[in-house]
Design a protein that fits this description.
By secondary structure, the protein is α+β, with helices and mostly antiparallel strands. Helices cover about 45% and strands about 20% of the residues. The strands form two sheets. The chain has a two-stranded antiparallel ribbon. Strands 3-4 form a two-stranded antiparallel ribbon. β1 and β2 form a beta hairpin. The model has no long low-confidence stretch (mean pLDDT about 90).
């Protein structure tokens, strides 16, 4: 698909693309410069990627939960 960048930096995305990605009424996107490309992602897409990465990095690690972190901090506080 083709989009036009205006001299002031505004980008107009095609309507079907906006609709498909939940931006029909407008919204915010994250702009990523990958060095050789510019990538636009919706906030939902960024959150989903972060959650997937977190699951991958913490898979099988029972001490990697928020509850485990808080319990460890509580033990450290008691020890002080």
């Amino acid at each position: 698909m083709k989009a036009r960048v205006m001299p002031d930096g505004r980008v107009s995305l095609p309507a079907d693309l906006r609709k498909r990605h939940g931006l029909a009424q407008g919204g915010e996107v994250i702009v990523e410069d990958t060095g050789d490309a510019i990538v636009l992602r919706t906030l939902d897409q960024v959150v989903a990627r972060a959650q997937a990465l977190s699951r991958k990095l913490t898979a099988g690690k029972t001490d990697a939960s928020v509850d485990a972190f808080l319990a460890e901090r509580a033990q450290e506080a008691e020890a002080e």
